[in-house]
Fold this sequence. Notes:
- The chain is of the alpha/beta class.
- The chain has a single domain (2-227), classed as 3 Solenoid (UDP N-Acetylglucosamine Acyltransferase, domain 1), CATH 2.160.10.
- Helices cover 15% and strands 33% of the residues.
- It is built from 3 helices and 22 strands.
- Strand 21 (217-220) and strand 22 (223-227) form a beta hairpin.
- The mean pLDDT is 93.
Amino acid sequence: MKVTIKMRNISKSIQRLFMILGAINLKTIYINFKFLSFKKAIKFPILISRKVWLKSCSGKIEIIGDIRSGLIKIGFGEVGIFDKRHSRSILGLYGKIVFNGAANIGHGSKIIVAKDGILSLGNKFTISAESQIICYKKITFGENCLISWDNLFMDTDFHKMMDEKDKIINEPKEITVGNHVWIGCRCLVLKGSVIKDGNIIGANSIVVNELENKNSVYVGNPVKCVKKNISWI
């Protein structure tokens, strides 16, 4: 039994090694050595798929906690309903991304962080595929968050609206997602949204404000609570 478990662990380690070696392309090398110290960069904690368009790298990346190879993956994975071969991710980094541990941002996902924006991702953050994050102020995800495909997070309206006194009335507002949150496919999370720990957001839902409960299921447009005191794995 012990021998079998040991062999499985060795097999997983070998597979992980080949995955890391296969992902060390020019984009991976560039990102690591641009944003990290040599001591950290040489471990290649950030792996970038060849199918990621590095639209801008003028901002900053910070990794908090222990550094290991392949800690952060951008543009990899596969979801069967999408054509992975023709799917391209985009990274437009003008502001700052903070990784608080491991992250897996699946293929076809687009992340834009504006000059004054801060995107903070908790440990074990996952996007399955084809989702978008547009951060002009601040978007924060807690630990162990699972984001499905075709989701959009946006903390800005882009175009400014003024009242009769020419005062801007639609400034960007922060988005906060708690720990262990699962967001189903094709959801829209807009500025000022607060999603608390343990919540599930059902597919095709729209979140526009602070949700009252933790450990609950929310669905609809706008979302409403349909089930309390739940857990998910």
